[in-house]
Amino acid sequence: MSDAGTAGISLHPDTPALAAAVADLVEEVARNSIRARGVFHLVLCGGMTPRVLYRILDRPPRWGRIDWTRTEVWFGDERCVPPDDVHSNFWMANRALLERVPLRDHEVHRIRGEADPETAAAEYEAEIRQTFADGLPRFDLILLGMGTDGHTASLFPNSAGLTGKERLVIPATAPVEPKDRVTLTLAVLNAAREVAFLITGASKADTFAWIIRERLKGDQAKLPAAMVAPTDGPLHWFVDQDAAPFLGPRGEKEEDQGNLA
Asked: How many Cα atoms within 13 Å fall on the side-chain side of residue 96?
């Protein structure tokens, strides 16, 4: 894993093993953040793989390893549905984790998906600006997924949120239902202290190979996930073997594969 394309990749045999590795990272960043600044700002993502992660964070042997009383939870994006809708990222995270740990209501910063998208985006941006100093916020750890089209959060190819640094949160339109979304912008993702992608399943393999290739192009990268590159902090790729068949068992590129040529 010495070149720019594979640096930061952590390869795992299946989703439970991957989730356990991400849980280790969450615990480590939480400890370091609380030690350094007194609070841990964690940004959650939606999807089935994160759900596995969330369900193990509050169970033995991990119970008590994170000081939730000094943790603030945010969301990278949200679908414009009520908070009790099964399509809501908040609904999933709340059932899997948030309602099970000692977080107070004001420490969970949800995006109001039930509101008009522009209103919800403006409210969420105001909440972020009120919490952080002027300029781009520096979340301690942002968790991200990736779609088969290379989107991340609700930043789809050619999204307005991929350019510019004035807005922190914008409305977005997805190609699938629910189409109305609210998302953090790329500038916010890249300002984070650490970012971690969680990618599983054979359906993501072709896209992930393209992502690695796109990252080798630097400024020419076009897919949103390939454009995530924290300006001052590490980028982690947690992937399972099905999503990265072109990698060897230690995350090294197989010499007989042409995917990244």
From this structure: 21
